[in-house]
Design brief:
Length: about 180
């Protein structure tokens, strides 16, 4: 962390209970702020960001057609948590691009699981590893209670998310076009 940190921020970053991690970069100046940035924490919906990057990489490689329609099976709509798809009728046919958009804009867990299933968990993790996100691990689908009970989770750090978001911001995450689509 930089030396000119206001005392109130230091206080907020060091609560009496729990832990706080911070990694921030001012894109134009390159100035950074870090605090426990490599603390590995449960990712919750942050795992959707590298999943989105892996999706656009697969699109650019020709492994996924973003305009292909996907029929939503009833069992896919039973996923707990956030999103709108589970409130809609089975049989809806969004495109893969629509699902990627819902995964990020409304944090849709159904869309996320469909994308993870389409790409393969190993492919998403391979993208994470290739991107140098050393603290990030995808070990289960969203809200997979059986996997959670077995001790599998999804993990990341503030440093990894700062690295990924900075790459998206400057247009180097997958490619300039993929970065643009992720920002969109």
């Amino acid at each position: 962390m930089t030396d000119d940190v206001p005392p109130r921020l230091v206080e907020l970053l060091n609560p009496p209970t729990g832990g706080v991690a911070l990694a921030a970069r001012h894109i134009e100046s390159g100035r950074t702020w870090h605090h426990a940035e490599h603390l590995r924490l449960p990712s919750a919906s942050l795992i959707k960001l590298p999943s989105l990057a892996a999706f656009w990489e697969a699109v650019e490689a020709g492994r996924v057609d973003p305009n292909e329609r996907v029929t939503l099976p009833a069992e896919a709509l039973r996923v707990e948590g956030t999103g709108v798809l589970r409130a809609l009728s089975p049989g809806l046919q969004p495109t893969w691009s629509d699902l990627a958009t819902l995964m990020i804009t409304v944090s849709d867990n159904v869309a996320t699981n469909l994308i993870i299933d389409r790409l393969g968990m190993a492919s998403v993790q391979a993208w994470i590893d290739k991107a140098g996100l050393v603290d990030t691990q995808l070990e289960r689908r969203m809200m997979d209670r059986a996997a959670m009970s077995a001790g599998r989770g999804n993990w990341t750090s503030a440093a990894d998310m700062e690295r990924l978001l900075s790459a998206v911001a400057v247009g180097t995450c997958v490619s300039g076009e993929a970065s643009r689509r992720m920002r969109q």
